[in-house]
Every structure is written in structure tokens, then in C-alpha cells.
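Input record (one chain):
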Amino acid sequence: MDDQRFEQLERKRDSEGLSDEEADELGRMMAERAGKPYANAEDRPSLQDEPVAWEEGAKRDEEAGEDASGSTDPDDRRLSDTERPPVAPGGSGYLPPKGGAEDPAP
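The corresponding structure, as predicted from the sequence alone:
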């Protein structure tokens, strides 16, 4: 490996940045120094190419007519925040803090 080229690429990386080709070259050199295999972003499979396992499971459940809870009964379906009815605030009136000077309402 060319140590002078390695140092040149590292300096350029830290100052003005590297082109894709230079970044690939530096990556290969770093992997070689570490004794590890090298692969750049183009060598890796795209996440869009392979479905994620949880997406496959969700699709299977959807096709089987099940929701995320695994139940097929629509009454067991959980409501989203937008579907839930409003809830009245708890308590029926004002209660002063403990140790306060106010007497509670009769």
C-alpha cells in the first residue's frame, strides 16, 4: 500500500472532501490496513431490493384479515388516537392543595 497516497487522501478528506472514487480508494486502503474485507455502498444490496421481515409479517396478517393484535374480531380492534371518543376530566370539582388555607367545598 502507498502510505504517501493514504496520508494525502486523509488530509484531503479532512479539508476539502473526497470524490466518490477517492473515498472508495481510501476505504479500500483502510480495510487493507485493518485486514478486513472492503465493500462500498454500491456493493451493498439496497434496502428496497429485499423486504424487511416485519413488513412480510404485516402483509401476511393483512391478507389473512388480522390486525396487529392478531385478532380477527373487529370488536377487539384497538382504536387510534383520532378514533377515540373524548374523555371528561377526572374529578367533579375543585380541591385545594393539602395544607392549604382554603376549606374544601361542602
